[in-house]
Amino acid sequence: MAFPETPAGAPLEVGAEIELDVTGIAHGGVSVARHEGRVVFVADAIPGERVRARVTDAKKKSFARAVTTAVVDASEDRRDHVWDAASLERDPENRAGGAEFGHIALERQRMLKAEVLTDAMSRFGGVEFAAEDGEDLAETLAELVEAAPGDDETNGLGYRSRVRLHVDPETGAVGPYAARSRRVIPVDSLPLANAGIAQIAPLGDFMPGVATVDLVAPSADDPRMLLGMVGEKTRAGASDAVQELVEDRGFLVRAGGFWQVHREAPAVLFTAVRDAISELIEDGRFDPAAGNLDLYGGAGLLAAAMAEAAGPSLKVTTVESDEAATDDAAENLAELVGALALTARVDRHLAELLKAPASVRDRLRRGTVVLDPPRSGAGGGVTGQITELAPANIVYVACDPVALARDTKTLRESGYELTGLRAFDIFPHTHHFESLAVFERE
Ligand SMILES: C[S@@+](CC[C@H](N)C(=O)[O-])C[C@H]1O[C@@H](n2cnc3c(N)ncnc32)[C@H](O)[C@@H]1O
Asked: Where is the TRAM domain (predicted)?
C-alpha cells in the first residue's frame, strides 16, 4: 500500500510518510524528532538514526506521533528485533506490543533509560546530575541503570514470570495487544517469558468467552493460567497461594496478586532496599524501634528487606489496600514479632496517623518510610502527608521516573535531601525500569 509524501510546509496528516532525523528519547519508549519545527514522537526508532515514519496522530498543534516503517541511516545499536511479531518487517498496526526496545542493543537500552531518568529528575525534580570523579557524564550515565543478574548472558530474554494475554472478542484468538492499540495480535512465541510460561501459553488457541489470560510461573511452584471470563471481575485461581523464592527466603503470594515480573526483580529490589537501610544504620540514622512503615507493601517483600538489615527486633507496619496481599504479608513476616500488616489505603492510613497522639507522632518522626507505589506514584497528596509526618528517612521505590521526579520536587521543597539514587533494568526490551531513591530529613 502506498502512502502520500508530505510536501514541505504542509500540515502533517495521519497516514503521511515522512523522513525524520531522530535526536532524543522521551518518556514512554518513543524517540523524539522534529518535522518543520513540530516535535514528532516516533516509535521503533533509535536516537541518532534517520528513519522513514508513518504519521499516526496529528491532532495536537504542538506535537505529532509517528511510527518507523523503514530505517534510512541505522544506529550501530540497531539489532534484529528479539521478537519477529514486533519487528519492522510487519506493518506497524500488526506489530505486537510489550517489547518496544527489542530492536536496540541491551547496553544502549540502559543508556536510554538513564537519559530518561536524569532528564525527568532535572526537569520535574530539580536534580542535576554531575559526572563522577575522573569520568565524563556519558560514562556515569552508562552505569546508572544496573542490569539484573543473568540478563547480559541471555540477551535479556526469558525473564518474565508473569504475562497477560488477551482474547479477541470477535474471533476468540489469544495474544498480546498490538503496540499502541487494544487489538489482539496472535503470536507464535513470547521471547520475554520464562520457560514455565512458554510451557503453558495457549498460543494459537481460540478461547471464546474469555477476556484475559494471565500466565503465572512462580519461582518455586507450578506454572498456572488464570482465566478472566468476559463480564466477570474475578479470575479463576487468582486467590490461590503460590510459593516464590527470593534468594533462599520463601514468600507466599496470591497467584493473581502483585509480584515483580522479572525472575530476578524481587531479589534485586530486596537487596537494594536492604543495602539502603544498612547504609542508614551505618550513618546512625535508622531506629529499628521507631514507627517504620512499608507503604504499598504488597506481600511484605520490602518490610522483609528492612528486617534483613535491621534485625529481628525491627518494628514495621506494612500498609496495603488488597486484603489478600495483606494476609500474605502477615504470613511472610510472621517471624518478626514487631511487624504488623494492615489492610488500608495509604492516604487514609496516613490521615489517621496524622491525628495520632504526640508520642506516636514522635515515633513516626524517628522512623523510616519505605514506599513502593503503583505506576502513578505516591502523588502530591500522599507525599505531602509523608512530609507532614516528617520521618527521618524515606526510601522510595518507583516504576515511573516522572512520577518519582515530581514527588522528589515535593520532598526536596519540604526539607528532604536526595542522598541516593539507583536504577535497575528489570524490564529488558521494554522502556520500563525501576528506581530507588533515598531521602534524608535535613
Ligand atoms: C508496586 S506494588 C508493590 C508491592 C510490594 N512492595 C512488592 O515489592 O512486592 C504496589 C502495591 O500497592 C497496592 N496499592 C495500590 N494502591 C494502593 C493504595 N492507594 N493504598 C494501599 N495500597 C495500594 C497494590 O495492591 C500493590 O500491592
From this structure: 11-68
Which residue out of 399, 426, 436, 438 is catalytically annotated?
A: 399
Question: Which residue lies with its CA nearest to atom 11 of ligand 1?
Answer: 296
Instruction: Name every residue whose Cβ is closer than 8 Å to that of residue 354 and which is 6 or more positions away in sequence.
Output: 361, 385, 388, 389
Residues with CB under 6 A from ligand 1: 258, 296-299, 301-302, 319-322, 325, 345-346, 372, 374
Are 289 and 186 in contact by the 8 Å Cβ rule? The answer is no
Give residue 232 CA to ligand 1 midpoint distance, Å. Answer: 23
Q: What digits encode the pLDDT tens for the residues 63-114?
A: 999 999 999 999 999 999 999 999 999 999 999 999 999 999 999 999 999 9
Task: Please enumerate, by residue number, every residue annotated as part of a binding site for S-adenosyl-L-methionine.
Answer: 260, 296, 320, 372
pLDDT at residue 298, rounded to an integer: 97
Distance, CA of 321 to CA of 171 (rounded, Å): 36
d(CA 210, CA 169): 8
The predicted structure's pLDDT at residue 1: 43
Q: Please give the number of the atom of ligand 1 that sits closest to the Cα of 382.
A: 19
> For this structure, is 294 an active site residue?
no
Helices 301-310 & 323-332, crossing angle to 10 degrees? Answer: 30
Residue 57: per-residue pLDDT: 95
Cite the annotated binding site by residue number: 260, 296, 320, 372
Residue 341 CB partners (closer than 8 Å, separation 6+): 297, 300, 317, 318, 320, 326, 327, 329, 330, 333
Q: Are 126 and 409 in contact (CB under 8 A)?
A: yes
CA 320–ligand 1 middle distance (angstroms): 6
What's the pLDDT score for residue 288?
A: 98
| Ranges in the chain, pLDDT < 50 | 1-3
> What CA dihedral angle connects 376, 140, 142 and 119, to 10 degrees?
30
The enclosing H or E element of 185 equals: none
Full strand arrangement of the beta sheet holding 434-441 = 145-147, 416-425, 434-441, 393-398, 368-371, 292-295, 316-320, 339-343
* Pairing outcome for strands 38-43 and 31-35: antiparallel
